[in-house]
Write a structure and sequence with these properties.
30% helix; eight-stranded mixed β-sheet; globular; alpha/beta; four-stranded mixed β-sheet
C-alpha cells in the first residue's frame, strides 16, 4: 500500500438533467439515472488505483445490502478493502445527486456508518510501504477528529509519510476550531474556496491560503473550481488555471484533483507542475458522468504536459 485513503463512502444515485428552474411534477422524463460508488475517499481511491498508486481504503459501512454492493463493486475494480470496517446497527450512507444542464450538482445525503470511523479502525503500526495518507473528508470524520487523529498524523510524518487533506461541508458548524489542531500535521491541505473562506473569514483564495499557512499547514492549495487553484507553500505561491471545458458533471472533480496531486507529488513532480497537471486532469474528468468514472491514467496526464 502506497496511499491510505481515510474518509467517507456512500452509494450515489445521480440524475440529470434537472434544471434548477424545473417545475416539479408527479412524473417527468430525464436524460439519465445511475447508481455509482461515491464518497470522497472512494472517489480518490478509484482515481489513485487507475494511476497505479496501490491505494487502500479505510472507510465504514453498515451490514446492509448497500454496504455489500459498495464493497463488491470496489473489489471488482481491484481496490484493497482490507481496512473497510463494518459497523453493526448502522446503515451505509447514500447520496442523491441532481445535475443540471451545466453540469453543476446539488447533493442530498442520508448519513450512516461513514462518519463513525474511530482510532481503533485505523491501521497501526503503519505498513512499511506506506508513502501517503489522504484525509479525504475532514468534518466528516467525527470520532477521529475529536480523539487521537492529530497524534496519529504526527507519528506518520515522523516516519516520512506525507499527509494530504480535503474537507466536506461543516454540517455541525464547528468552524475552524473543529480541525485547527490537525492543521500543523498536514503537508498538503486542499479545501475548496467556498468551504475554506467560510472557515477563515477571508475574501480571496490568496488570503485564505495565507491564513491556512499561518495555522501550520505546510502547503495550502485552495481549489477554485473552473478558475483552477491558488497555491501557497514554501516551493511556490500563486494561481494555477484550470483547463477550460464544457462540463457534463462536476461531481468528484475535486477528488480527481486530489488523487492526481498525490500521484504526481509521490512521483517526484514539483508542486507547481503537480498542481498544473492535476488541474487539467480534474477539468477533463468533468467530461464524464459520475464522481469517479473518468479514465484518468498516466497516459492522459502525460498528454496534458506541454
Amino acid at each position: 500500500m502506497k496511499v491510505l485513503c481515510i474518509g467517507l463512502a456512500v452509494m450515489d444515485i445521480s440524475a440529470r438533467n434537472i434544471s434548477q428552474k424545473a417545475v416539479w411534477e408527479e412524473k417527468q422524463s430525464i436524460s439519465q439515472i445511475s447508481v455509482q460508488l461515491g464518497g470522497d475517499a472512494v472517489n480518490q481511491c478509484l482515481y489513485l488505483n487507475r494511476l497505479q498508486m496501490d491505494p487502500a481504503l479505510n472507510i465504514a459501512i453498515g451490514p446492509d445490502s448497500t454496504g455489500e454492493m459498495l464493497t463488491g463493486a470496489l473489489r471488482q475494480q481491484g481496490i484493497d478493502t482490507g481496512y473497510v470496517r463494518m459497523k453493526e446497527g448502522q446503515r451505509t450512507g447514500t447520496s442523491l445527486i441532481l445535475i443540471d444542464e451545466n453540469g453543476e450538482r446539488r447533493i442530498f445525503s442520508v448519513s450512516g456508518a461513514e462518519r463513525s470511523l474511530c482510532m481503533q479502525d485505523l491501521p497501526y503500526p503503519f505498513p512499511d510501504d506506506l508513502k501517503a495518507i489522504s484525509l479525504a473528508s475532514l468534518y466528516g470524520l467525527d470520532c477521529l477528529e475529536r480523539d487521537g487523529l492529530d497524534a496519529y498524523l504526527a507519528e506518520a510524518r515522523k516516519k516520512g509519510v506525507l499527509v494530504f487533506a480535503d474537507t466536506v461541508y461543516d454540517k455541525d458548524g464547528l468552524g475552524l476550531k473543529g480541525i485547527e489542531h490537525l492543521l500543523p500535521h498536514i503537508d498538503y491541505f486542499l479545501p475548496s474556496s467556498y468551504e475554506a473562506a467560510s472557515l477563515t473569514g477571508t475574501n480571496t483564495p490568496k488570503e485564505t491560503a495565507a491564513f491556512l499557512r499561518a495555522c501550520g499547514v505546510q502547503t495550502a492549495i485552495v481549489k477554485c473550481g473552473a478558475d483552477g487553484v491558488y497555491v501557497d507553500g514554501p516551493a511556490y505561491q500563486g494561481p494555477i488555471p484550470a483547463m477550460q471545458v464544457d462540463p457534463l458533471d462536476t461531481t468528484g472533480a475535486g477528488d480527481c484533483f486530489a488523487a492526481c496531486l498525490i500521484s504526481t507529488i509521490l512521483s517526484g513532480y514539483p508542486v507547481e507542475e503537480a498542481c498544473r497537471l492535476s488541474c487539467r486532469a480534474s477539468s477533463w474528468s468533468t467530461l464524464s458522468l459520475g464522481a469517479s468514472t473518468a479514465n484518468v491514467t498516466w497516459d492522459l496526464i502525460h498528454s496534458l504536459e506541454d
